C-alpha cells in the first residue's frame, strides 16, 4: 500500500510540475506547427524516477537522468545518441523512431532504444523552437526539455 501511495504521489507531483511548466507554452506558438517545424539537432535533458521493476536493477523507485542529442528530419523521423544514468549505472544508448505534430503545436514521440526500453512521450513546441516533454510509459515518470542546436 505504501508503494501505491508513493507511486500516486510521484505521478501527481510530476503532473503538477509539468503542467506548471507547460501552461505558458500552450499559447507560445501562435503560427501553428507541422512536421517540418521540427528539423535539425536538439539537445535533450531529462530526469525522473523509474517506478516499475526493470531487469537487472534494484527494486524501484530509483532515479533516472539523461543527456542526449536528437536529430529531427522534418518529415516525422527522429534518431539520436544518449548518455543515461539509471540509479548510478551509466549507459550509452541510441534511439530511433517517429513523431507526430499537430497544428496546435502538441505532438507525440515514439522511440526504440538500443537498451531495449521503449520511450513514448507527449510534447509541446515552444515559441523558441524548444520542446517540453513528458514520458507516457508506465515504467517511468520522466520529464524532458529539448533545445534546438542547429538545422
Describe this entry's structure for a reader.
With 151 residues, the protein is mainly beta. It has a single domain, classed as Quinohemoprotein amine dehydrogenase alpha subunit, domain 2 (Lipocalin, Beta Barrel), CATH 2.40.128.120. 14% of the residues lie in helices and 52% in strands. It has one helix and eight strands; from the N terminus they run αββββββββ. The protein has an eight-stranded antiparallel barrel with strand order 1-2-3-4-5-6-7-8. Mean pLDDT is 86; it is low at 15-20 and 23-29.
List the SSEs and their pairings.
Blueprint: H1 2-22, E1 39-50, E2 62-73, E3 77-86, E4 89-101, E5 106-113, E6 119-125, E7 131-135, E8 140-150
Antiparallel strand pairs: 1-2, 1-8, 2-3, 3-4, 4-5, 5-6, 6-7, 7-8
Unreliably modeled segments: 15-20, 23-29
* Fraction of residues in H or I helices: 10-25%
Domains (count): 1
Secondary-structure element string? HEEEEEEEE
Q: Give the neighbour order of strands across the main sheet.
A: 1-2-3-4-5-6-7-8
CATH topology: Lipocalin
- How would you classify the helix and strand content by structural class? mainly beta
* CATH homology superfamily name: Quinohemoprotein amine dehydrogenase alpha subunit, domain 2
Mean pLDDT reading: 86
Radius of gyration: 15 Å
Regarding CATH, which class?
Mainly Beta
Instruction: Tell me what portion of residues adopts beta-strand conformation.
Output: over 45%
Largest sheet composition: 8 strands, antiparallel, barrel
Count of separate DSSP helical elements = 1
Distance between the termini: 49 Å
Amino acid at each position: 500500500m505504501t508503494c501505491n501511495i508513493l507511486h500516486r504521489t510521484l505521478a501527481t507531483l510530476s503532473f503538477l510540475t509539468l503542467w506548471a511548466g507547460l501552461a505558458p507554452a500552450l499559447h507560445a506558438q501562435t503560427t501553428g506547427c507541422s512536421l517540418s517545424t521540427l528539423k535539425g539537432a536538439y539537445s535533450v535533458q531529462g530526469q525522473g524516477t523509474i517506478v516499475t521493476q526493470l531487469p537487472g536493477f534494484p527494486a524501484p523507485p530509483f532515479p533516472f537522468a539523461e543527456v542526449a542529442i536528437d536529430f529531427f528530419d522534418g518529415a516525422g523521423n527522429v534518431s539520436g545518441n544518449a548518455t543515461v544514468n539509471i540509479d548510478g549505472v551509466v549507459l550509452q544508448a541510441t534511439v530511433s523512431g517517429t513523431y507526430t505534430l499537430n497544428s496546435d503545436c502538441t505532438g507525440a514521440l515514439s522511440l526504440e532504444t538500443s537498451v531495449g526500453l521503449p520511450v513514448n512521450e507527449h510534447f509541446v513546441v515552444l515559441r523558441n523552437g524548444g520542446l517540453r516533454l513528458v514520458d507516457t510509459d508506465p515504467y517511468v515518470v520522466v520529464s524532458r526539455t529539448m533545445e534546438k542546436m542547429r538545422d
